[in-house]
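Fill in residues.
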């Protein structure tokens, strides 16, 4: 797909529409999820990858021991689009189905300090 900045959402729209547990900054949507073990985090990442394949929209996935960081960014739009919001919502559904809930998610301040 050709570069299409018209699909890029404003920062205000991203803040209004982002699902619980996600934060936005510099045109990207982020979420950290912490698990009891490295293996659980890897399994979660694989499930997120399967969701992404089904949606044909793929987040960056980074595994830091027990913490999995997800970031959505639509490259051909140069920022966050509705496809990113929809992907984040689908991930939240997966998190809820796994029983992770908000107790294992970090907000922007905690996420920046987590290691």
């Amino acid at each position: 797909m050709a570069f299409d900045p018209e699909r890029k959402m404003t920062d205000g729209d991203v803040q209004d529409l982002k699902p619980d547990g996600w934060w936005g900054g510099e045109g990207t949507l982020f979420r950290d999820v912490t698990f009891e073990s490295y293996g659980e985090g890897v399994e979660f990442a694989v499930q997120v990858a399967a969701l992404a394949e089904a949606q044909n929209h793929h987040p960056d996935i980074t595994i830091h021991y027990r913490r999995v960081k997800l970031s959505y960014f639509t490259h051909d739009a140069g920022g966050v689009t509705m496809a990113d919001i929809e992907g984040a919502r689908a991930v939240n559904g997966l998190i809820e189905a796994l029983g992770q809930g908000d107790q294992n998610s970090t907000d922007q301040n905690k996420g920046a300090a987590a290691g």
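The longest helix spans residues 38-55.
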